[in-house]
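Bumping with the actual sequence this time:
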Amino acid sequence: MFANIFTTPSVSTEESRAFVLSSIAVSTGLFSIAFYYGVFGTIFFEHLFYVWVASTVALAASLFVPPVDALPAFISWRGRFVLILPTFLLIWLFFNDSASMNIESGGWIDWILALAIMGLTLPYLIFVLVMVAIPDVERLTNPTLRTAILAIAFLVVLSGYGIGRNHYHFISCFDFEVSGNYVPKNCHHQQSAG
C-alpha cells in the first residue's frame, strides 16, 4: 500500500523509464556542486568551467542542427542566450583584476553573478542533455512526473548542501586529502588504529 502512495496512475512504461533516467541525470549533475558549495562556501572553478564548456559546445552544436520537434527551446534564441551566459561570466572575470568566487574574500559581485548564471545555465544545460541523451524523454507528458523531477532535483541539491555543511559526520580529513581536495578546517580527524 505504501508503494502506491507515490504512484501516478496511467503512466506508460516509456514514460516511467524517461522519468527515472531524467531524475537520475538531473540529480547527479547537481549533487557535486551543492556538496562542495556546502563544504567550502564557494563555487569551484572546475564546476564553472564544466558548465562553460558544456554550454559552449551545446551552443555551437545547435548552430549545426536543424530545429527538431523535441528540442524547440534548445534551438530558440532564448536557449542560445542562456547557453552563452557562462562565456559572459568568464569575460567578466578575465577583465576584473580582483575576481573572486569566495564571499569571505570580498567577491560579492562576482559570487552573485556566478551564482545567477550557474542558476540559470546549469538547469537549462541539464534539460538539454536530458532531451538529447534520453530518447524517451519526449514521452514524459504527465505534469505530476515533470514536477516530481524538479522536486527530486531540489531535494538532492538541499541534501548535497546539507551533507557538505556537515561533512565531518560522513567523511574524514583523510578522505579529502586522498581525493586531492583541500582539507577543510572543520573536518573529522580519524583516530589511528595503533
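The C-alpha cells above came from a reply further down the thread. The CA atoms of residues 101 and 111 lie 5 Å apart.
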